[in-house]
User: Fold this.
Amino acid sequence: MEKVFIFDHPLIQHKVSLLRDKNTSIKEFRELVSEISMLMGYEVTRNMPLKEVEIETPVAVAKTKVISGKKLGIVPILRAGLGMVDGMLSLLPMAKVGHIGLYRDPETLDPVEYYCKLPVDASEREIVVLDPMLATGGSASAAIQFIKDKGVSSIKLMCLIAAKAGIARINKDHPDVEIYCAAVDEKLNEHGYIIPGLGDAGDRLFGTK
Ligand code: PRP
Ligand code: URA
Assistant:
């Protein structure tokens, strides 16, 4: 059984449908990725711990709550994960941002690393890895391993469309990592593309095809 949280909120489902449409313009595509990321981020942060504080309002002292516990960091997988950063930062403007550069070898579909820079205090943070597409799961699994190798123990993976194979791979390689996505698709084609998916997320975000 797959372990994954699927966001079935109507706004998210509607926006994912627009994202899949091949006629959606680059401008709309970028906006949609950002908007869905923000809506998902709202739920992904639902369990952040709170602590009680006292705040002086203009008329009295209020016992009220603020976020406590581990600070958050977000790590987009380049390139396509970059499209999700703004949406998350609009909720979490103080979050630190790391970057992991990976591309899939088109023949083997294995991830090839070309960049990794994480916040110096990453090991003290809860890290949310961002990538719109979870296909074979090879890229996300490698990215999560890099992050673990830097001493991070608390990691979540947030993607927009996940293939069943990718979910199974992350569940197997990293059973401690919770996966959040907006849609689960059945299969991959012979080139490792998610079917029906939305095509190549990086190319659609950056206009490279
Ligand atoms: C895409 C996507 C993921 C990866 C998913 O990146 O953004 O990182 O493929 O595939 P996987 O689950 O089979 O590893 P891509 O390699 O196309 O690089 P890009 O973002 O630079 O275009
Ligand atoms: N990467 C993408 O951008 N799209 C897919 O369908 C699979 C991997």
